[in-house]
Amino acid sequence: MVNAAALIAVYLQTSIALTAALEQQPPPKTADGAAAASGFDYDDLSLREVGARNTRAWRVWLEKKGQPISFWHDVPLWPDGADKQIVSFVVEIPRWTDAKLEIRRDEPMNPLFHDTKKKEPRFVESVWPHKSYPFLYGSIPQTWENPNVHHNFTGFPGDNDPIDLFDIGQDIGYVGQVKQVKVLGGLAIADSLTLHMPPRPAHQDLEKYRPGLAAAFRDWFTYYKVPRGDAVIPIAGDGGYQDVAHAVAVLEQGHAWWAELTRGDAVDANEINYNQTSNPAAAGSYVRSDAAAAKFGIPGESAVELPAAKPEKYERWYYLDSDKKLIEIPE
Ligand SMILES: *[C@@H]1O[C@H](CO)[C@@H](O)[C@H](O)[C@H]1NC(C)=O
Ligand SMILES: *[C@@H]1O[C@H](CO)[C@@H](O)[C@H](O)[C@H]1NC(C)=O
Prior knowledge:
Elements: E1 5-11, H1 20-24, E2 45-52, E3 59-64, E4 67-69, E5 86-93, E6 101-103, E7 112-114, E8 116-117, E9 120-121, E10 126-127, E11 136-140, E12 163-167, E13 178-190, H2 204-209, H3 213-223, H4 244-263, H5 289-296, E14 303-305, E15 317-318
Parallel strand pairs: 1-12, 2-14, 10-15
Antiparallel strand pairs: 1-13, 2-3, 3-4, 3-7, 5-11, 5-13, 6-7, 8-9, 11-12
The structure holds 2-acetamido-2-deoxy-beta-D-glucopyranose (2 copies).
One 2-acetamido-2-deoxy-beta-D-glucopyranose (NAG) binds near residues 108 and 273.
């Protein structure tokens, strides 16, 4: 059984001095009004939502100027090419929600969908004292956690997805939102192992302005799968957050692997659909955005239906004992 490893970068875009400038700053523009990074203008983006929430058929596509593009392959990783600490972020799971939504890697233009477990839409269980996702959660476009190589930091192969991200700011966000955030650090989580690591204080300003938050969120990732019968998830390295330099190095590596993927040079693309609309030079993966909907049978416009009901068990709170085992009340 292969162990997956994923880097979770931490972001901040609140009133905290550290990143206050970020919110005011529009994407850098060139003379003709296009964003500096590959002519990408975030104002051109919109969403196409089809189907009922909480069902397997539900999808959200990203559009640019009204035509479908890929959340994963067509949004630039670095909006401002010069500052590698500022990255684009695709919101899959808004704060205070629990539906496990993610980028669909094996469908053309990689829409968002509701992940399933045993063919049922998956929601995250709430482990006391948390409720649902306490942060914005999503992924970083144009990165790939390559499953064909063992990463030198975690010692495990990647999980075959874009690099994940959680944003600790005050924005609640919405499904499919594409925003720019500042990297504060990273967490390397190694799924399906059992180890305990000592905590370590995170970024100094973070601790000053949001005392306890870094540790609480790290613990959220450590224990969130226990209620469904999975093991505690260890944090690779020394169990704490990695610094910005480390996180940026991981992003650069993930971006290089992604570039290999979309060029068609990856050893094994692992059933990823990497059709993209932004690099005509990439033979074999480029499609014209205005031709994508017809070519791939993507619905022409939004058609939202009423959401399906969420199973009652996801409204519960789950409690862990001092050994981090699920507490069951005897009959
Ligand atoms: C991984 O190892 C390579 C060389 O072996 C090094 O250049 C790179 O910085 C390392 N990456 C990380 C994230 O440590
Ligand atoms: C593009 O999409 C088609 C249809 O799903 C698929 O057959 C093909 O493999 C995809 N190409 C790439 C490069 O992902």
